[in-house]
Amino acid sequence: MLKLGVIGVGNAGNQVVATAYTRNANLDLFAVNCSDTDLKTLPTDIPKALIGDGRGAGKNRESSKQFLATAIAEFIKEEDVKNFISNLDVLFIVSSTGGGTGSGISPILTKVIQSVYPTVYVIPVGILSALKEGLSTHSNSLEYLKELYENLDRPTYMLYDNGAFSDLPSNVMMEKINNRIVDDLIVLSGYYNYITKYSSIDDRDFLNIIKTPGRLVIGSTGDFREKDIDETSVENLLLDDIRTGGHVELQ
After folding, report:
1. Which of 74, 158, 162, 175 has its CA 20 to 30 A from that of 94?
2. Under a CB-based contact definition with an 8 Å cutoff, are residues 121 and 207 in contact?
3. What mean pLDDT do residues 140-160 have?
4. Distance between CA atoms of 203 and 193, rounded to whole angstroms?
């Protein structure tokens, strides 16, 4: 299995980390935030870093970038951070695209960590807001995506959409997305890889797949019986999962 780590940035990213912790997923976890209040909601065992004055970014991407610019040199040198990152094969940096802290910090943090730790492959994971969110939220999302496509060198990235479950109460909507992200990372770790003497996917095969530049989307299905695929196929079940599982729509 691959050694995967997750840095959750901002409250959305922090809650993905908390979900992975609660589910005992085999993922190394770290939380970063500009809000001391948000960090206090996390389990005490999750390592954390506070950037800025602890009062949050107020959905202001530029504020969070300034906080990071002041703190990044010290953050990268911290022993806890070095020990966390240096042993990983792949690091996922998870955040919302529409907030201030995660949206502003994540693309820059991706670029910095990839530069400092070239043996660790870094993948940004963005969570888009539902359409009913405010205009400033969608403006932040556009800025995040612009930086993702223009400032990172041929990245692998993942995108999820809270709007896929916008008909549900907000807390349920977020929990579904958080769990979906954790589900997909468990798949990428190789947890479900079935080893046979004839054919199997080894760690380097997984890395080659993960490191392919572009958008990475996971489709999964399970708990079906032979009669369940009499009128369809496993491939169609996978496609249905991609369409309805919380991913941003594919063309």
Report:
1. 74
2. yes
3. 94
4. 10
